[in-house]
Amino acid sequence: MVNKIRAAITGIHAWVPDYRLTNHELSKMVDTSDEWIMQRVGISERRILKGEGLGSSDMGEMAVKGLLEKTGTSPEEIDLLICATITPDMSFPATANIISDKAGIVNAFSFDVGAACSGFLFALQTAATYVETGKCKKAIVVGADKMSSITDYTDRTTCTLFGDAAGAVLLEPTDDDNGIMDYIFHTDGSGRKFLHMKAGGSVRPPSHETVDAREHFVYQEGQSVFKFAVVNMADVAVEIMKRNNLKSKDIDWLVPHQANLRIIEATGRRMGLPPEKIMINIEKYGNTTAATIPLCLWEYESRLRKGNHLILAAFGGGFTWGSMYIKWAFDPK
Ligand code: UT7
Hints:
The chain has helices at about 25-30, 35-40, 55-70, 95-105, 120-130, 210, 220-245, 260-270, 280-285, 290-300, and strands at about 5-15, 20, 45-50, 80-85, 110-115, 140-145, 165-175, 180-185, 195, 220, 255, 310-315, 320-325. By secondary structure, the chain is α/β, with parallel strands linked by helices. The chain has two domains: about 5-175, Peroxisomal Thiolase, Chain A, domain 1; about 180-325, Peroxisomal Thiolase, Chain A, domain 1 (3-Layer(aba) Sandwich). Bound molecules: oxa(dethia)-CoA (UT7).
């Protein structure tokens, strides 16, 4: 019998800007406090990309160049690059194209995926499918978001939540029993009313009026999103465990989207996992949208072992949500 070709993550890298926006600094900008943010969300600081003319592609470029170097891959070998982002450098062309150009990736086709906080998972599975068919041999998936570019720093209900970062993985075919095993994805467009950016698209193109009304920033009805997120992220993580006959003891790591520590902990509890099996770095980076999951994998890389069972889970704007089951394919170098 011919073995099924799987796609496996064979390298991971991430990049974060130097500037740390602390809760203390935010409390001088809006009516908030370190105590409120830590208790309700679990964020202590977030990184902000400073500098004129810098965008998501610049962070993606750093993550991708580091990934190529770390894995000993030459840019010419890459045949697909997908960037998950909701903060593209510009409406078009795709930020993936700009990252490819900046990183010297000249033999790939590239495009963006816009699925907000689930963007990295949706992009990862898209790239995996190309690899599984044999069409692509080396694919890169980047999650990059400069959330500070769409965050209203006069609105205390959103400005404490977001940060800037990029993370990237290399995907290659494998015929052993590791790699991307399964995925379950959902969207519910009716949830868009709770989390979106009002202007800047074709319905409300940018105008003096939209700028004056502060409509180019994230709009979120936090409590409503919280209710959907806490149920759906846990449900979809449990669903993928059941479908793959995985018990709590079989899972080595939950890799959750980092939007709120309370949502992450609730998901872990529903899966029956002890806290030490949950990747958490929200305290240091906040919600970096498409970058949270690769940022977690990068930070925990030295603790991952070949054959480890990982459940990735996300929920975000759209609404979009989903989970992936991965058997980690390599030991730390
Ligand atoms: O990643 C994309 C998906 N997004 C999410 O998953 C986010 C889901 N939502 C959340 O994580 C939470 O809803 C938030 C962190 C956004 C808000 O936490 P919450 O516990 O739902 O707070 P709330 O919106 O119910 O607000 C409670 C109180 C309100 O005051 P009153 O009306 O009780 O007097 C707010 O005005 O907290 C107030 N508040 C703040 N106080 C201090 C809201 N933001 C702040 C703040 N500092 N930054």
